[in-house]
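Annual report, structural modelling task.

Input specification for the coenzyme A complex:
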Amino acid sequence: MLPAATALLAGACAFDRAAVVAEEKLFGPGPSGTVQALGAWLGDELAGVAAVAANRIRVLGVMPSRRGRGVGTALLTACEAAAKASGQVTLRTLDQPGNYLAPGVDERNTETITWLEKRGWVKTGEPRTNVLIDVRGNPRVTAHRVEALSRAVGEHGYEIRRARPDETALLDAVAAEFGGAWPFELSRALAHSPTGVHVALKDGAYCAFAAHDGNNAGLGWFGPTGTWPSHRGQGLGEVLLVACLVDVAEVHAQCEVAWIGPRPFYDKVAGVVSDRRFLLLTKTL
Ligand SMILES: CC(C)(COP(=O)(O)OP(=O)(O)OC[C@H]1O[C@@H](n2cnc3c(N)ncnc32)[C@H](O)[C@@H]1OP(=O)(O)O)[C@@H](O)C(=O)NCCC(=O)NCCS
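The model returned the following structure:
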């Protein structure tokens, strides 16, 4: 099913590069629970796909030439039924921590938003933002700058380095300090060669980390990142972000920073060229 589903998602999802991460979204693990991938066939042709994991729809798309004949509604109803059968009371669009195509539905995707609203889904909470950073030809994104910033924090006793593939102590430390889905995303980023994780240590203790390609592997997305509270304000987040952006530049012209916290931080460190905004929609089952 994967090649057909990948081709379908390439045509169906105009706002997200869902085809690149088709396997991860349809079949990949999340931090908890399992994913159920659903297909809708017209004859022997795959016309639509969806994936539902716990209380999130990870992806849902119908081949453009097969729209308007109930395929999407059938998939949506099946996702809702699967979530309800597994004990969920609400279902949400896309934003599964640890394995999300996007932090919601792209706000430009008005057709899909209206379509969901007609089916009892409601916009919930504030929009989420991703920011885009040019990583090629950006004078703030260079290996030389990583070295200079590493030297500067080194004067205060910090060591900056790429994490090793077997660095499970980092996952334990992040789980203890931050929890949530971050250790899961980091474990996925550690599995790349070279690892997509950079760390800051002082006296052998972790002080900060940053990762890319932990979620949406292959898209060059940045995140998660975190600095232990007592080490904030020392430039660790900056050097680790730039180290990740230099990695991403090997493959991509831009880096997408997902579901951002402080936008001014990214603008100051590397320059934000544009924003994407996403709406969370939910349905009570
Ligand atoms: C949104 C989307 C899934 C809808 O798929 P679809 O197969 O066209 O959905 P449906 O056919 O069930 O519904 C579309 C319309 O066709 C109508 N329709 C339903 N059954 C029908 C039938 N048997 N004959 C004719 N029309 C029908 C519906 O009434 C609906 O109109 P409405 O929304 O005004 O009520 C599809 O447009 C899509 O793939 N969009 C992009 C995917 C995307 O961006 N996903 C978000 C990121 S994962």
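The chain has nine helices and twelve strands.
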